[in-house]
Fold each of these.
Amino acid sequence: MKKFMKIISSFLFAFTLIFSSVSVEAADSVLSTYTEYFENGDSFEITVIQHNDEYLLRANSKTKSASKVGKYRDSNGTVLWSVTVTGTFTYNGSTSKCTASKVSAISNNSNWRIASKNSSRSGNTASATATANLYKGSKIIKTATKTVTLSCSKNGTLS
């Protein structure tokens, strides 16, 4: 019985290690964050996030998926709206290519409304542009357009 319990314990321990390492690998990774500041105190915070999608890791180690998120904040640091580009890239050490690009844009403030959004891809770059309007009543009092561009180097470095 002792031997049986040892075997079961060892099996459970190995099972736990295997699945805990998979969940660590599958977690997204923040690669960089930086902020642009404007004269009026507003800012635009840009974060690059690598998606460690399990299916990409298994299928092809020379494929990466990532997002670049731009958050438009007021002078108090409150996020007013954001734009995100998500790209999928292939690379081989000699070249890299963006194979897919998509955009999302959301407003976090009822006075700001997303007026337009679009994405594009070219070479090793995925881009997204969004325009948001600030309303006072039914009148637009401010318009902001922001672009986020995500690139992958020939060695798979995302920026």
Amino acid sequence: VRIVRDCITYCATHMKRYNPINISGYHVSEAGSSPLDEIAFTMCNLIAYVEEVVKTGMPVDEFAPRLAFFYVCQADFFEEIAKFRAARRVYAKIMKERFGARNPESMRLRFHCQTAAASLTKPQYKVNIVRTGLQALAAVLGGAPSLYNNGMDAAFAIPTEEAIRIAI
């Protein structure tokens, strides 16, 4: 936590346009957690990091606009849309009510999303195109500002050029 604190404070002071951290929930979800746990763990990490940075005397609005998150979009279409929408509201509430953020950018959840590698299958791998397409749509409808769509053959190899073209 101290290393993260030091990284955030250094970047806020010397590298103002740099994102010092991506608070990740992707690995939590891919390990089998529920969407609720994925968001809860990242928000707990957020609170721990922000508390530490604020203890240094740095105002929350000086560093919070550059915090970023990394989430997965799993296969349950409506649950994933709701997860992202709820995460944005929870984040804004934490930043405003708990940490006193005033800058709207400090209350905007900036996150990258990736479709779920755990949902990809080797047999009939071309079906993964539809699978990741629906996951990508759920991420967009949930408000994801940044998205990576897995290639259809990523279940068994580094994606081929064709798979990457299709994913894009």
Amino acid sequence: MRSWQEELLKITESTDSEQEVFCRIEMAAKSMGFEHCAYGLRVPWPLSNPKILMVNNYSPLWQKRYAQEGYLLIDPTVSHGRKSQKPLVWTEDVFSGSRQLW
């Protein structure tokens, strides 16, 4: 049985559409009982201006607020994802350093 990461890599190799890849992620999240999900990817090149790709199914109002408030810089889920591939259970403690986001 392949891991979800292997499945995702297989999908990305067979399509050029980031929306198709996200659609698969969204279906997997919904099958686990989640209403919303997000996927972010930071490509470290060029070093002077790394590319960041973010896709999600949150409301446009929340997406706007997230961007305006600069939550990307303080979001502990983003920080965790940059350091680890392990799951992260959202708790109040995880967001202790970013209460306004919690």
